[in-house]
Specification:
Blueprint: H1 3-29, H2 40-57, H3 67-75, H4 84-105, H5 107-112, H6 129-132, H7 141-161, H8 172-187, H9 197-209, H10 226-244
Helix pairs in contact: 1-2, 1-4, 2-8, 3-4, 3-7, 3-10, 4-9, 7-8, 7-10, 9-10
């Protein structure tokens, strides 16, 4: 596999993941949508199914869609380090495109979200950042990083030691999708369970600098390092553990 191939397939797969993942967050949170107020299980299922769709399409590269998966497989020797930058590039650009497509799909609802039923401006869009990026329930970033590390480790342990044995493929994508759902349901609410650096950073960049949403709130850059650093630390730890075992 060439670097160009790796970049292209990871770009397409990650874009699909973020389109569906940000999409399910939009339909649960936007004021005028029929699914407004659906519970957390809808979000967890949406993200899990998004992983299955994106990874299945990106099967030629192993369907990583996540720099933590890529680093873990490079650390334990299952992926050539020379391909890692191409994986990363495709993943971050795909995440940004997916966020844009999610906004485009819900554009009219984002516009309507700025008004109440009487047509008065509400400024409700200040809460729309959470549709695109994660934010913690409590502001202690050290403990938030611990949560993200633990949650990411659950995912990576399944990939490294589960039925796939470090080799992702069409059937194992079902399992990975269910693990993402399980992590979301069991560990997701303290931090929003990014468990994937580009899943958080790509949409955060798009929300902060590109998407034309009125009355946007803060991009919460003081927290943005947590969903990037903690999953990558978990990737190194699981990669080394898989070598030792």
């Amino acid at each position: 596999m060439t670097g160009t191939d790796a970049c292209l397939w990871e770009f397409i797969g990650t874009a699909l993941l973020l389109l569906l993942g940000n999409g399910v967050c939009a339909l649960v949170n936007l004021r005028t949508f029929g699914a407004k107020g659906s519970d957390w299980i809808v979000i967890a299922l949406g993200w899990g199914l998004g992983v299955f769709v994106g990874a299945s399409v990106a099967d030629p590269t192993g369907g990583h869609l996540n720099p933590a998966v890529t680093v873990m497989l490079a650390v334990n020797g299952d992926l050539d380090w020379g391909l890692v930058p191409f994986y990363f590039l495709g993943q971050i650009l795909g995440a940004m495109l997916g966020a844009f497509l999610a906004w485009a799909a819900f554009k009219q609802l984002f516009d309507a979200n700025n008004y109440d039923d009487a047509g008065n401006v509400t400024g409700a869009n200040k809460d729309t950042g959470g549709i695109f990026f994660t934010s913690p329930a409590h502001p202690h970033n050290g403990w938030n990083a611990v949560t993200e590390f633990i949650a990411t480790t659950v995912l990576l342990m399944f990939i490294a030691f589960g039925p796939a044995g470090g080799e992702l493929g069409p059937l194992s994508y079902f399992g990975v999708a269910f693990v993402v759902v399980a992590v979301g349901l069991s560990l997701g609410t303290p931090t929003g369970y990014a468990i994937n650096p580009v899943r958080d950073l790509g949409p955060r960049l798009m929300y902060a600098f590109v998407l034309p949403i009125k009355d946007k709130g803060s991009a919460q850059w003081n927290y943005a390092w947590v969903p990037v650093v903690a999953p990558l630390l978990s990737a190194v730890a699981v990669g080394l553990l898989s070598i030792a075992l």
